[in-house]
Amino acid sequence: LSLEKPQEGLKSPPNQSMLEVEIQNRLSIAVLLPNLEISLTDAEESELKTIQFTPKEWLPLSWQESHPDFLKNGAPAGEIIQSELSIALPTNAAGYRVHAIYPH
């Protein structure tokens, strides 16, 4: 699974923003889907807040409905998934990082 750089990043209004994320399984086999961890940072790159989304929280509902066994089967080979995540921003947020996390 490869995490692509978010497209438009964080946008206004001031406290609620949308983060666009694209994930692609570049392997020739199905791969389990990760949690997504969003780290919000200030202007000095200090971490302000970390938010974690499970696959059920970050996958678009339409994709989940068309892949009912996704928690067991993962993302099919070559699959590209685009998702928008609504995030409440701290007032001094200036940047972000996105990580794919596989919990133990």
Provide the residue-averaged pLDDT: 87
How would you sum up the global shape?
Answer: elongated
The biggest sheet amounts to: 3 strands, antiparallel
State the strand order across the main sheet.
1-2-5
The count of helical stretches stands at: 3
Strand runs, count: 6
Radius of gyration: 14 Å
Instruction: Report, as a whole number of angstroms, the end-to-end distance.
Output: 17 Å
- Strand percentage, roughly? 35-45%
Helix content: 10-25%
Q: Pairing-aware structural class of the strands and helices?
A: mainly beta
Stretches where pLDDT falls below 50 for ≥5 residues?
1-7
Order of secondary-structure elements: EEEEHHHEE
In a few lines, what is going on in this structure?
Helix content is 13%, strand content 40%. The chain is mainly beta and 104 residues long.
What would you say this structure looks like, in words?
A three-stranded antiparallel β-sheet has the order 1-2-5, with no helix packed on it. The chain has a three-stranded antiparallel β-sheet with strand order 4-3-6. Helices cover 13% and strands 40% of the residues. The protein is elongated, with a radius of gyration of 14 Å. It is mostly beta strands and 104 residues long. The protein is built from three helices and six strands.
